[in-house]
Protein 1
Amino acid sequence: MDKNEWEELREVFVRNQGSDFCGKVNAYLSHLHWYSDTFEDATGLTLETYRRIIRNELPNPKKDTVMMLCAGFGLDYRMSTDLFQSAGHALSLTNKKDKAFDYVLLMFPGQGLAVYNRELVAQGLKPLQTKDRKPGKIGNVKIS
């Protein structure tokens, strides 16, 4: 993502400061002109998750889901932590997985799901994936 794209995404973030989780995600989807296929490829999430977000039926997703969205959208640290908060989550620095999420969001902003998963695996955690996807594969990216 170049500087102009980041600034545009940041504007979407600012305009949607008070929105709920689905409202924020829908604003990002609209801004990026993403439909289900792009959503699935970029985030590793399912078509059903996409549909639930579009219909505002996913108010409190799991942390893994939020992390996958942050990776797919290429959000920076501030936008990511705001998305976590809108989903009803905070990252705890006493929880191993939360600390790893915090580290990845801070050190690898906007670098995508493959990079996030590589770093999570390096920290002894499982890669981010949905239940119906085969382990080791997210979208079209093989995790090693």
Protein 2
Amino acid sequence: MKNIALLTFFLVFGYSLIGQAQGLMLKWKYNLPNHYFQGDVGLSSDGTAFFVARSNANFSIPVLYALQQTPRAVKWKAPVLSEWRGYPVIWNNSTVYVLDAYEGANWTEIHLFALNITNGTTKWHTKSGPFDNYNSDSYISIGLDGTVFCTANSGNMGAVSAFNPITGKKKWVFEIEVGLAQGCDITPIAVADNGNIYFANSNGIYALNGSTGEKIWEYFTDSSVSESPAIGDGGKIYATDGGYLIALDGATGAEIWKPFGSIGFLGGCHQSTEPVIGLNDTVYVGCIYDGIRAFDGSTGLKKWEFRTDQPIYASPTVGSDGTVYVVCGDGKLYALNGANGTKKSEFRTGNIPSSPTIGSDGVLYTVAYTDIYAIYSNSSGLANTTWPKAHSNNQNSGLANSVPYFLSTRRLNLNSIEINVPLSTQKETVLEYTSNLTNWIEYQRLSPKGGVFSVNIQLNQDTKENVRLWRSRVE
């Protein structure tokens, strides 16, 4: 009887515990007395978490912390001198970049600081833009070669500047002027693996050559775009324009779909989060008023929506298994089925103003104003897509993940085809084909030139009969 009772206990309560383990469970919570946290958490490859906290007693002095996991302890902390902007950005497991006011200068003059990731000491700092006074947030992104891109806004003027990551020397600056009644309000920058960079402001969406700062194209929007664009497969650019999600060709700026009616419609929501990209080319957008919506990235048609009673202030994050994690103003972190939007689990933390970060071990990190939470999830890191979370990756670099681009072909004649291949500006692009969707055979390596390169391929008997798919990837 005792064995039967134990078996019954396990079946009832053990199953319940396993069910909980399959959802969201607390690993640890970190609190600094009389402090509050702000911005998204950055995560280095060794699991060190980087975040900013401010003292309630001294509002003007935020501090950047590096928190190691085992044993859990502060490795170092560095005062970021006055008016904290943005979030920590990690490069090459060697440097943490932050933007802040520079002591001794006008308090609104923002400097870019490069800190040693090991001990938090300053490597160098420099003025982040061409203006003496800044009136809105500034942001950092990182290029393939480590180039540091910074945004700056001053009244109706805005600028993007590029800096050498070793010396801090300015490479180039691109300035924008909008109408006097507008603020420029440049968003964070999205960096493609071909070297182009994309951002938005109160006028529209811009594409620049990341090496030279030259404008490639500009797309005028109907309203101000307040969040970073996201980069999808094939270099597609997703952004929100008023109450719509739009998709543009990254090379030309041409519309991939025309937002109209139900296509890209955000349900009357005119304030939304940065788009993120999940499995099967699904694009997710959080709406500040009432929930999250999922769209087909190829057509702009809505797949599903998950409604909430409270606002969604921060972008969702997509896990490796397709689960969508989104934080809400009701103090809950939700895990949703990425395919249909049904709720898998939830975890109450309190007020959550940041986007989740997911380590390769499946531990999810999020800031809840007075606490940082580490939460077990069912995912094994981020989804293998170009833009699975805000700022693209756990390092907050804004650099699109290099996933293979699957390429379409155009038949020229019986024995040849043409393929348009997007090229990186920094690294070789490898053109490959497969006959079984498992093993890929290298066909050609293309030099880094940027843009799109047309390849004419002469088919032999093997490639003519057996090739099922072509792709390109950056090495």
